[in-house]
Amino acid sequence: MASLEQQLKAIKLKKSAKPTSDFSNPKLGGFISEQEISDYQNSVLDVNTELWVDILKEETFPTKYCEITKEDANLFIEIYERLYKDIDESKIAGIDWRDGLNEQEVKQVEILRNRLQSKIDEFVKEGSDVFVKTSSRSAKDAPLVQKRFVDIFKKTINTCRDNSENSQISALLTAAFEAQRIHSAEEVFDMFLRSLRIYQDLTLARDNPERFNENFVIRKFIDIDIDMEFRGFVFEHDLVALSQYNYLIFSGRLLKEGKQISERIQRFFDKSIKEKMKQKNFPHDYVIDFAVCNNSTEEKIWVIEINPFLETTDGALFSWNKERHLLEGKEGFQLRLTKANKPGSIVMLPQSAKELLKKCMSG
């Protein structure tokens, strides 16, 4: 069972000539030293959900925890490595992890599933759907390798006014978001055990036993329009830049209202976030994701997630390499939005997403 450090050192990635949008997977590039790996691991752990969610309990989604023990983490890691690691993504959906468990793993899964279900039921009994992630990230990549995602996507694309590239990507993102809506521990297991992101994060946590504090983070599911998510960059406690999160799509509404929305997010951050985070032993620099939600009576801004202020975090419409000075506030507040349809955006999607689009649109 290779450690994350061994895996990263073996990769020695060069920068790609064609960037891809991979639903917020880490961007790992260049030759990686042991110190860089250590810095990366600690930076990820420094912004784990448990370290900020209680500080911002009024500004983020209602949240409950279910502990992931070291034994639980090893269970997920071992199953992923045995069944899915290095397998072509197109084949993952056809491999049922339930058929690949030994007797002891079946018992472990059942115990953990029952424990997790009892926590999920606390939300379900209130009439709420839930979203489940680990202490670090979600299994956003899993829907692309689940059979049910295809049905959700087809239903979504049928509601679009046209089959343009922009509509296809919008439908893909909407379906990926909807696929995160769950009601049972069984659904969580099916996503987590197929997710490279979860495998990476649990491996990282396992490799840092002195800091191991992992949980299933169970959150009330809040409906969010895909053009109303934003990635903010905080440097020395100040929100210095904001980008459209799903930047491969063009939104006429966002182009029209973006400046006003940005100003509301800035006011929200300065009033409700900045001082709270300064008062705690939390990094001065971080990447923070916002959602703007509207109902019939009010507008609500939510904090979705906090990520490390590192090049491994997707810069959205900003370039860490070419525009770091902007992300450090050297030229005042910056707002970036996609201002027109982007012909050719599909090539920036992960290969599995491109294949899925091709299959669904031709079928």
Automatic annotation (TrEMBL):
Domain of life: Eukaryota
InterPro entries: CDC123
GO CC term (a single one): cytoplasm
PANTHER family: CELL DIVISION CYCLE PROTEIN 123 HOMOLOG, D123 PROTEIN
Family under the similarity heading: Belongs to the CDC123 family.
Protein's name according to its UniProt entry: Uncharacterized protein
The organism of origin for this protein: Owenia fusiformis (Polychaete worm)
